Amino acid sequence: MSRKRYALLALLGLLACGVAPADAAERQAVLTVELQVDGEQSWDTGTDNGRATTSERYLIVTPLRSDGELDSVNVLDPQFAERQMIRAAQVQRAVLQARGGAVTPPATEAEAASRQQALMLQMQARQQACGSDANCLMALAMEMTQQSAALSVASAPADLPSAAADQEQDEYRYLNFYGYEHCPGKIEIRIERSVEGEFADIAGMIPFRERHTADWRGDALQNQSQCLGQQTVFDTGSDRFYARGYALPSAAGTWSRSVRGRPDEHGDNAEMSADATVRAWLSEQLSVAADSGSISVELPVTDAALVGSTIPDARYRGAVRASLKWRFEVR
Fold this sequence. Notes:
This protein has 331 residues and is α+β, with helices and mostly antiparallel strands.
């Protein structure tokens, strides 16, 4: 057997996908998230001013299911796209080498761009020479694709990770978990927020106070949405889970506003969400995490009002302290 033929067969072996056992038993998992948020903030517009506080507690329990079949690909890995591009470059490079069609790598990015431009000009000239000959144009398109791919592979870093370095992507170690209908989830949210201050009036500075409260238990629709919206991958090799895009649910509560100590406005069933900075931080923490853990952080809150509506020309100063605990239990 020739060396080239042997290389091609070896490559086909690398590309062949193994099949995980089809009779794997269904698995259950529960993702439990506990979050405590406490914060203070002051603001002023040059005339109006206010001081706000918040205390919030979230308990979110999300049951999930897996078909039990291990996968070799983790689609929620933040480096998934990069890994796939590297693997594609590895395969292309191996194919070109096996066919004896490897291209000398360009020394610089400028040389790579110059060679790509020269290839385009060459192909345009040959396209004109083909005229309306369909067979000629088809052969030219195939050749253009091959040469462009060869140049792209040659332009890739010479020190692409080896198959051994990328071994974990070839192991069947990932369980995909999804939410399901009528899952017995739990959403408990308690919120206590207040802001008081003064606003300017022709009669002088007028004191005001707002209070926002919620003691919320998620209803069936919200629990269902939280469950169905959650996709998680569990890495059985490292006991880590991936939950990219974790969304913290909102609560329904009441608010009231008083001016000069007298009731002024109030509302029921008002939607209350955690500060955007907190939500983004939480989502990042749970994008890749150990199966259990805890972390606390202080986050600045300077872009928007911590309590009530944001005033466009106000200057905000403050911070929140967020304490997070989580567990991902596979059963």
